[in-house]
Specification:
single chain, 287 residues, mainly beta, Cyclophilin, 2 domains, 7-stranded mixed beta barrel, 6-stranded antiparallel beta sheet, 3 helices, elongated, ATP binding, transferase, PxpC, transferase activity
Length: 287
């Protein structure tokens, strides 16, 4: 009996993701992993997997997979979307069983961007440097999924799911991201303009970073910074003045001033924003 999924359609982008490669930034390897880490943890807990088990990150719906020889327990979290099994609506954020041969389809979410298809036992793609995460910047990890791919599924552990559904996030409202002032907040004329404005997510956004438009932060110094360490949630300001919020596949160094850092939990919310969505920032005190 083969525990596996065969990919029939992927939508705009479908990637295998776990919680990423920890502790390798010193040798130039970014962490990567799920753009919405909370959603990945949620789907794994619903299925009694380890928090770090790999799932399929689906950008803006369109995924269609078939269950091979052995039926699988599945769940979809992240951006709520219509989920169908052989044409039957089972919904997101609910645990369901897909029989051998069944087709599982994720349609476009009404709000949000990234949904996560988890399976009991986890997606058992080949590991690279201790992780199954697909890093679009470095190219490490499994390639983006395409029709015809077969995804092996791991053997479940001894624990069994204790819930049949989990809470779905409300992603329809304006996002307000909590942030602390960054180490280079004096490198723009008025860093408070970051929190005084409503920004728009531009189409020049991906898993590496989210570029914001609608306003510009003016540089306060003519000098250029040497490259410094970068991290998820950092808000850099390039010469254009349009801030860039680093997401999961950010580079390990950057040469533009970091004027703010979004708290880690709110980066998950940022990862669910689509081009055109409004976003605001709110200062909080550093702990």
């Amino acid at each position: 009996m083969t525990r596996a999924l065969r990919v029939h359609a992927t939508g705009p982008l479908a990637l295998v993701q776990d919680l990423g490669r920890r502790g390798l930034s010193g040798v130039g390897v970014g962490r990567s992993g799920a753009a919405d880490r909370g959603a990945l943890r949620q789907v794994n807990r619903a299925l009694a997997n380890s928090d770090d088990a790999a799932a399929v990150e689906v950008t803006y719906g369109g995924l269609e997979v078939a269950v091979l020889d052995e039926g699988l327990w599945c769940c979809v979290t992240g951006a709520p979307c219509p989920v169908r099994v052989d044409g039957r609506d089972v919904g997101s954020h609910a645990v369901f069983f897909a029989e051998p041969g069944a087709r599982v389809v994720l349609d476009r979410p009404a709000a949000g961007l990234r949904s996560y298809l988890g399976v009991r036992g986890g997606v058992a793609a080949e590991q690279v440097l201790g992780s199954r995460a697909s890093d679009v910047l470095s190219g490490l990890g499994p390639a983006a999924l395409s029709a015809g791919d077969v995804l092996p599924v791991g053997t479940p552990g001894d624990r069994f799911p204790e819930v049949d559904s989990v809470a779905a996030p409300d992603l329809a409202g304006e996002a307000v991201l909590r942030a602390v002032r960054g180490p280079r907040d004096g490198w723009v004329d008025d860093v408070d303009a970051l929190v005084a404005s409503t920004w728009a997510v531009t189409e020049r956004s991906n898993r590496v970073g989210m570029r914001l438009g609608g306003h510009a932060l003016r540089p306060a110094r003519p000098q250029e910074l040497p490259s410094e360490g970068a991290w998820r949630g950092a808000v850099q300001v390039p010469p254009s003045g349009e801030p860039v919020l680093f997401l999961a596949d950010h580079p390990v160094t950057g040469g533009y001033p970091v004027v703010a850092v979004v708290v880690d939990a709110d980066v998950d919310r940022a990862a669910q924003l689509r081009p055109g969505d409004p976003v605001r920032f709110r200062w909080i005190e550093a702990p």
